[in-house]
Amino acid sequence: MNQKINDFVVRFANTNGTGSASANNMFAKAIFRMGIPVSAKNIFPSNIQGMPTWYEVRVSDKGYLGRRGGRADLLVAMNAQSLTADIQSVESGGYLFYDSSKPLDEAVLRDDIHMLGMPISMICVKEYSDPRQRQLFKNVIYIGALAALLEIEFQVLKDLISDQFKGKEKLITPNIHALEIGFQFATSHFECPLPFRVERREFNRGKIMMDGNTATALGALYGGATVVGWYPITPSTSVVEKFAAYCQRLRIDPASGNKNFAIVQAEDELAAMGMVLGATWNGARAFTATSGPGVSLMTEFLGLGYFAELPAVLINVQRAGPSTGMPTRTQQADLLACAYASHGDTKHVLLFPADPEECFSLTARAFDIADQLQTPVILMSDLEIGMNDHLCCELEWQDDYQYQRGKVLSAAELDELERYGRYLDVDGDGICYRVLPGEHPQKGAFFTRGTSRDRFAVYTEKGDEYVQNMNRLAEKFRTAVRYLPRPECREGDKSAAIGLIYYGSTTAAIEEAQDLLRDQGLSSDCLRIRAFPFHSEVQDFIERHQQVFVIEQNRDGQMRTLLTMELEQDPQQLQSVLHFDGLPISGRFIAAEIVARLAREAQTQEAG
Amino acid sequence: MSFQKSKFHHPRLPLNELGLSYRDYEGSLSTLCAGCGHDAISAAVIQACHELSIPPHRVAKMSGIGCSSKAPNYFMNRAHGFNTVHGRMPSVTTGANMANRELIYIGMSGDGDTASIGLGQFAHVVRRRLNMLYMVANNGVYGLTKGQTAATADLGSHSKSGEANLFADIDLCVMALQLGASMVGRSFSGDKKQLVPLIKAALSHRGFAFLDIISPCVTFNNHATSTRSYDYVHEHIKAAGVVDFVPARTEIVSKFDNQKLEDICLHDGSILRIRRTDDDYDTHDSRKAVAAIEEHKAKGEILTGLLYIDPTPQEYHEMAGTSATPLSRLSQEDLCPGSRVLANINASFR
Ligand SMILES: Cc1ncc(C[n+]2csc(CCOP(=O)(O)OP(=O)(O)O)c2C)c(N)n1
Ligand code: SF4
Gene3D superfamilies in the record, alphabetically (chain B) (predicted)? Predict the structure, then answer.
């Protein structure tokens, strides 16, 4: 068999709560440190302990960071509960590494895969007396074995252990010892390396491996957020937890020891969103993070934010819906609920980060956009970006960058005014001037409300005043595009017949999908949407292509709906490629869907 | 609709320390029904703030939705106001207070707003010890939606259409006491003598001050069988103490040699003076306050006055250890750690 270098998938099958996560993460990190592109996915149950959990690592010299899809080349089976299914999920000709302390049930064995048995439990019983240690070191031992099987540099693993236990040096030696146990066993019992293995590269310069929620938290910190109201919900919880942890390190006033931030764990998402609006009304930058069920509860306040024209940043780390759905699975299914959240004619600005680096930069920018437009801005992250580690560019911050606070009048500016009108469209862009409470002793006070008012913020039910206000809000939404990130458009030879439109976490799978399509003689152009409302480039792209596929991770083609509604686009021209089983979409899936669709069309045409 | 009042000032109106007359504390012309108790509350707020020389523009008027929540329109035009959504004034006020601890927060809500749709938020704003005055204009009905029974209506009391209330009432003072409000009082919109000092004390109190103010709805709940009508309340009121308020700046000349008199010194040095009508009443014991409320209720009486006070409570920002400068006024330099720190953060993810 030919050697396959840096091109394979390893899947770990573990039990939730056994400490395998950090060992598996070390495996992916080691490959990252060897300069090889790698992507890692947690596939975990909505349960704290005892249920099967998987961790899938894809190694790819070509830099494909999406899921490959299909079966794994090597399966590390550490969970008896899921073993039967795990054996089935190995690629033909692939390998199963398992704990051979107990003999395997003959009935489930396959003769088209290789079996690598290691009596890990027995070894641990001999090595360690403490039951917790027996459990924890099991994980480190199999990583040691994999190092031998895949030729992972041992020094890289040792360095990772030292980094991980900085400050707890006592733990370093026993962990390295456990790695060695595995390594030695594999070298003396198996034919190492396997036909697929890793080889050092230099592809990861300027790259980091981070999860999107951490990046989002840092974006909020750098964007100047000071107030957070939130309510825990998977998969968004770590956004606020990480924000709190970084604030504890970086936002304590050295002189007084006081906190330059305030975080309240609210009683529910209604209150969380209310706190955000209260804080921004007073001029602070504030955000909340939630997922689908929380968004549902926040809609009333989102409507208030829209109509009363208050900035707010809402981080929506999407998960599979509807209702409680699949809390630990990923989806992009909240688009419509967020774009039009709340009753009446309401629209919201959406941002679509594709990876952690963009979670950082777009979150930081979201605070500017919200202030500039005086409206809620929703960052549409998802579980896949939010909770998995991704290889991405380093986070960057320009020190000369100034926060954009939008149109806020100071006391001195108020003095110059004959009469201040909160909802006067002075500049003709639909965006009016705010005054913060307490600013001026005589001037500028008004009532903020969710009820109809005239341009001077006085309550009114006059139809013409109402219509004018609503039209101005529509104008403001058109203006919004100026402040939003442009779509990313990649067009090869201008002759490509098909266009691909996608956004957010789907991005990781696109390059591979395009390559697979090209292998079949199909060239494609692509456009990644980064914000709603849409820039004119989106319309142009659609018009330039005979056929456009909108690729997304929901059942109903929500982005396609949004495009056809907002651009008044002929729906015929947009076809959906939809993946919504809760696992991240793969390049293989996208390519296969498009090829099948085109083949079907060709057939119908022939028949006709 | 709201109508602007004329700006005409009588030149001889008394001025307070800021040189402002009470007209400077007024709001728009009320659009509430003539005789609505809520207007009397607005008048009491105007008087209290004027007498305390509170700078109107440093006040944030927060409310939910309802006739009572409209009332902040009718006092202090120079203060910013926020009519939020139904029942959610507490969370918005919490956020506002987190962002700027220096403003004076006056929350105005109805019994529907607070005791039904907003009960959860009410409970939590009390727990969080927000530094604010929270007033409920309690009329036992929903005024704005025309007369439905509120959750504060007494068991067995009758609606205008004659239906008896099947359910026990929620006593917001009892709830506030149990959840840790550091000042709790009950009053009657028709009793300005009692209400004004209570509002003044609450505004000077650095912590969560709750006032439940019985405020008859003349349109939907002022009939003969109501327990929230003017006549009923006048007949059944029982004051725990007659309250007077001495601002910090006024010199206290003599101390009354009277067993029933107690002076409570507040954070800002002002004095709350209570002359008891009830010898046993202890304003510093929240459990006894709950018991007293229940006892009087059992006798068909409404206990009013200052029910409880902790003169030196902690408020949210003290507990949370937030910056003394309002968070909304921190600059980018205070908040953004810059690129060098980010480089270190990047390094920890390699
Ligand atoms: C979500 C929502 N539900 C219902 C309403 C309708 N509504 C407006 S005011 C009100 C009740 C007001 O009663 P209360 O708070 O007691 O104030 P009052 O008018 O009696 O002073 C209701 C139910 C609303 N505005 N929003
Ligand atoms: S309906 Fe009742 S509560 Fe509302 S304004 Fe009239 S009297 Fe007041």
Answer: 3.40.50.970
Angle between helices A120-127 and A172-189 (to 10 degrees): 140
Q: State ipTM.
A: 0.96
Return the exposure string of A316-345: e unless at least 16 CB atoms fall within 10 Å of the residue's CB, then b. bbbbbbeeebebbbbbbbbbebbbbbbeee
Contact A266, B91 (CB under 8 A): yes
Predicted local confidence at residue A49, as pLDDT: 82
Identify the pLDDT of residue B6: 67
Nearest chain B residue (CA) to A405: B332
Which CA distances in Å does B192 have to A183, B14, B187? 85, 19, 9
Chain-chain contact of B320 with A450 (C-beta, under 8 angstroms): no
- Residue B269 pLDDT grade (very low, low, confident, very high; cuts 50, 70, 90): confident
The pLDDT value given to residue A47:
84
Residues A31, A62: Cα–Cα separation, whole Å: 14
What does the pLDDT read at residue B9? 67
> Cα angle vertex A385, ends A380, A388, to 5°?
150
User: E-strand spans in chain B?
Assistant: 59-63, 80-83, 104-110, 132-138, 141-142, 148-149, 183-188, 208-214, 237-239, 241-246, 261-265, 271-276, 302-309
Q: Is B258 exposed, middle or buried (0-12, 13-18, 19+ CB in 10 A)?
A: exposed
pLDDT recorded at residue B2: 53
The answer to whether A16 and A78 have CB atoms below 8 angstroms apart is: no
Pure H helices in B181-331: 192-204, 230-236, 286-298, 316-320
From CA A503, how far away is CA A381, in angstroms rounded?
10
Distance in angstroms (rounded) separating the CA atoms of residues A458 and A475 = 21
Q: How many CB atoms lie within 10 A of CB A480?
A: 23
Cα A199 from Cα B238, distance rounded (Å): 87
Partners of B106 in the β-ladder: B61, B133
How far does the CA of residue A407 sit from the closest CA of chain B (Å)? Answer: 16
Structure tokens at A199: 């080889």
Q: Say if the Cβ atoms of B99 and A256 lie within 8 Å.
A: no
Please report which ligand is nearest the Cα atom of B114. 1
Q: Hey, what amino acid is at B9?
A: H
* Residues B71, B40: Cα–Cα separation, whole Å: 10
| CB–CB contact A261 B322 (8 Å) | yes
For residue B253, the model assigns a pLDDT of: 47
Does the C-beta of B32 come closer than 6 Å to ligand 2? yes
Q: In this complex, is the C-beta atom of A267 within 8 Å of any C-beta atom belonging to chain B?
A: yes
Distance B137 CA to ligand 1 centre (A): 13
* Pocket, ligand 1, Cβ cutoff 6 A: B 65-68, 86, 110-113, 137, 139, 141-145, 150, 217
Q: What percent of chain B has pLDDT over 70?
A: 94
Q: Write down the residue that tokens 């944030």 correspond to.
A: B60
Q: Does A257 touch chain B (CB under 8 A)?
A: yes
This prediction has a pTM of 0.96
The per-residue pLDDT for A455 is 97
- Whether A469 has a pLDDT exceeding 60, the answer reads yes
Q: Does residue A456 belong to the interface with chain B, where contact is any CB pair within 8 Å?
A: no
Is the distance from the beta carbon of residue B173 to the nearest atom of ligand 2 less than 6 Å?
A: no
